Amino acid sequence: MTTDTATQNSTRETMGFQTEVKQLLQLMIHSLYSNREIFLRELISNASDACDKLRFEALHNSALFENDSDFKIRVSFDKDARTLTISDNGIGMSRDEVISNLGTIAKSGTREFFSQLSGDQKKDASLIGQFGVGFYSSFIVAERVVVVTRRAGLEQDQGVRWESEGAGEFNIEMTTKATRGTDITLHLRAEGQDDLLSSYKLRSIIRRYSDHIVQPIVMKKEEWDAEAKAQVVRDEDETVNQASALWARNKSDITPEQYAEFYKHVGHDFEDPLTWTHARVEGKTEYTQLLYIPSRAPFDMWDRNARHGVKLYVRRVFIMDDAEQLMPTYLRFVRGVVDSNDLPLNVSREILQESKDIESIRNGCSKKVLGMLSDLAESDEAESKEKYAKFWGEFGRVLKEGVGEDYANKEKIASLLRFASTLADTTDETVSLAAYISRMKPEQEKIYFVTAESFNAAKNSPHLEVFRKKGIEVLLLSDRVDEWVVSNLSEFDGKPLVSVAKGGLDLGKLEDEAEKKEQEKDAGDFKDLTEKIAKSLGERVKEVRVTHRLTDSPACLVADEHDVSGNLARILKAAGQNAPTSKPILEINPRHPVVLRLKYEDQRFDDWAAVLFDQALLAEGGHLDDPATFVKRMNQLMLDMSGTGK
Ligand code: ADP
Fold first, then answer.
1. In which band, very low, low, confident or very high, does the pLDDT at 1 lie, cut at 50, 70 and 90?
2. Mean pLDDT across the chain, nearest whole number?
3. Closest atom, ligand 1, to C-alpha of 181
4. Pick from 169, 168, 151: which is nearest to 160 by CA?
5. Of the chain's two ends, which shows fewer C-beta atoms within 10 Å, N or C?
6. Is the model's pTM score more than 0.85?
């Protein structure tokens, strides 16, 4: 940030916007123009939040009210000056707050976010919507914006005037402001904005987008004057919105559009929600919940410090944003409001952590959200199915965390999981555990899965060969979080979940007596060879044994029953954590020509054994410690085979 003048606080200063703000401003003006009316929703939404914040702070310090505890948001316009003003008597801002709130974007991941913008207006518009446009959207319709604000409780001469044309810079100076709160004046662009200078138009925008706002949004009354034969403005206020908490109204009195607009306000989102649930809960503790599932994951969902979650109200009084205690972490994508009847108004985050009421609210909310998702997932209606698929695509990976996090709801969460599978051609995760079970082979007793680093690595894993041959479905797990899921989910509906790459492969009744006999015979026939390979590989393996998992590949690695899988060990290592060191078991395919040849190999036996091990490691997505030696050995063996080796 650059400063022209050294003296602060008294003189006018010019400062530069943070680079990201400049980018946002430019892009927004172009890509959101067709939606320009939303600027009013954004400014009113901020004004409402500012009133909520003051009401909350005043719980501990009533002097902040400055003898005026009636909150109000005023929208006015001046046709001649071509200005529109949105005023609130909320918390207001200090000088430092103005500079940081209206000059920078304090969201982590902002830079990465902007690097995704493509220049394609349509795509960028929806991305920017996802980012949240807020205050800066005023520049869609205004060529100059003036903010005059004073933080509640500060002296009158501690007002701040901020002004900008939305290009690279803004001016800031101290000013006097008699009343607390914020006035935002938009000097409308010369072209195309005249319709906004109309009471009728403004009222219709407010009713459409901001009806749910709790504070009254007032405008000067306008009436038809018969004598003057014209609309005249009276010196009398009129409330334009319903000004009552939406969640406290009866469900039957709320339209889907009103639910959607309210969501955009609480969720700071631009798009409609995917679905929602609204209920008044009575019992041990009384509360109202209005919970939404967004249509799209926010750009910073993986940032655990980002602003997320549900707002807490106590008897209609706003208490706090993102009260993380209200929702378990694996449901952090849920947005909305919880309004408690029982909590004290002076509740703090510390109290929330201990509160029994909160615990029961959290349990109730988790159940409600999971129930809502189940209804979507299990519905026969195409629209619901589509919504569930969309939900899963956006938030499935987050929900998966719940399997290990929410013991009480584990079975329910497991029923919501979707996986890719060997019976489907796509990478899409579409198979539920229940669907898998319903099409299991009659003799099949277990749910089989493979984990790998990518979908392709899972799909082409050598461990699947025998399952393909027998036509048994295997779930393909390639999300990092899947390892966490399967380590916490040992069974579903009485059927154990089993990794195809772990332990001895016991296909149970899926194998007949003849196959079992043959395997025993192979183990005997190849005993010498497996021992010799084990000796050659030494510390690299726990054991070498004959396998019947493979049909096409010569060898594969498996983890011992209770050891960490190779995939999980690699994930832990990549995350910088100490993976327990357990050695893999090398399994060789007694039908493979390479293995058969090895029975008669003397001279280069060690090279063959090492290559066999290394390629098994590569095939399951592992990394070689010493790739150069592997390549050298391979080349040597190829030359040998072609008869030109030395
Ligand atoms: P967001 O509302 O998503 O945080 P904005 O860019 O709209 O983003 O606003 C940035 C910040 O500026 C807000 O978080 C708030 O702290 C402050 N702010 C905006 N409008 C007002 C207002 N009318 N009164 C007080 N603070 C405001």
1. very low
2. 88
3. 24
4. 151
5. C
6. no
Summarize pLDDT for 300-355 with one digit per residue, the tens.
776 655 666 799 999 888 888 877 788 998 999 999 999 999 988 877 778 888 88
The CA-based dihedral angle spanning residues 362, 368, 372, 375, taken in that order and rounded to the nearest 10 degrees: 130
pLDDT in tens, 3-38: 444 445 568 999 998 888 888 888 788 777 778 898
**In the prediction, which pLDDT does 4 show?**
44
| Three-state SS sequence of 161-227 | EEEECCCCEEEEEEECCCCCEEEEEEEECCCCCHHHCCHHHHHHHHHHHHCCCCCCEEEEEEEEECC
Closest CA to 327 of 297, 359, 302, 354: 359
Token pair for 123: 């795509």
More confident of the two residues 518 and 409: 409
Nearest CA, atom 23, ligand 1:
47
Pocket of ligand 1 (CB under 6 A): 46-47, 50, 88, 90-93, 101, 132, 134-136, 182, 268
Q: Binning pLDDT at 50, 70 and 90, where does residue 533 land?
A: very high
Which residue has its alpha carbon closest to ligand 1 atom 3? 134
Shortest-distance Cα residue to atom 12 of ligand 1: 101
247-378 has CATH 2.60.40.3500 classification = no
Q: Which of 28, 49, 53, 105 to mutate to test the pocket of ligand 1 (most atoms within 8 A of CB)?
A: 49
Mutate to test the pocket of ligand 1, among 28, 64, 101 (most ligand atoms within 8 A of CB): 101
Per DSSP, the residues of 496-554 read EEEETTBSS---GGGS-HHHHHHHHHHHHHTHHHHHHHHHHHGGG-SEEEE-SS-SS-S
CATH of range 518-642; options 3.90.1170.20, 3.10.20.30, 3.40.350.10, 1.20.120.790: 1.20.120.790
> What would the pLDDT profile of 403-434 be if each residue is shown by its tens digit?
999 999 999 999 999 999 998 877 777 899 99
Which has the closest alpha carbon to 333: 275, 294, 304?
Answer: 294
**Structural domain boundaries in the chain:** 6-244, 247-378, 518-642
Say which DSSP state 419 is in.
Answer: B
Residue 20 CA to residue 103 CA, distance in Å, equals 10
Nearest CA to ligand 1 atom 8: 134
Could you tell me the distance, in angstroms and rounded to a whole number, from the CA of residue 252 to the centre of ligand 1? 32
User: Residues of the chain with pLDDT > 90: what percent?
Assistant: 58
- Tell which one of 18, 20, 46 to mutate to probe ligand 1, the residue whose CB is within 8 A of the most ligand atoms: 46
The residues pairing with 276 across neighbouring beta strands, listed in sequence order, are 292
**505 HSE (CA, 13 A, CB side):** 27
Contacts of residue 174, defined as CB under 8 A and 6 or more positions apart, other chains included, come to 9, 10, 95, 157, 158, 159, 160, 161
- Block residue for tokens 């036996």: 605
Which superfamily does 6-244 belong to? Histidine kinase-like ATPase, C-terminal domain (3.30.565.10)
Please compute the mean of the pLDDT values over residues 590-606 and round it to a whole number: 89
E strand residue ranges, 282-385: 287-294, 310-314, 317-320, 335-340
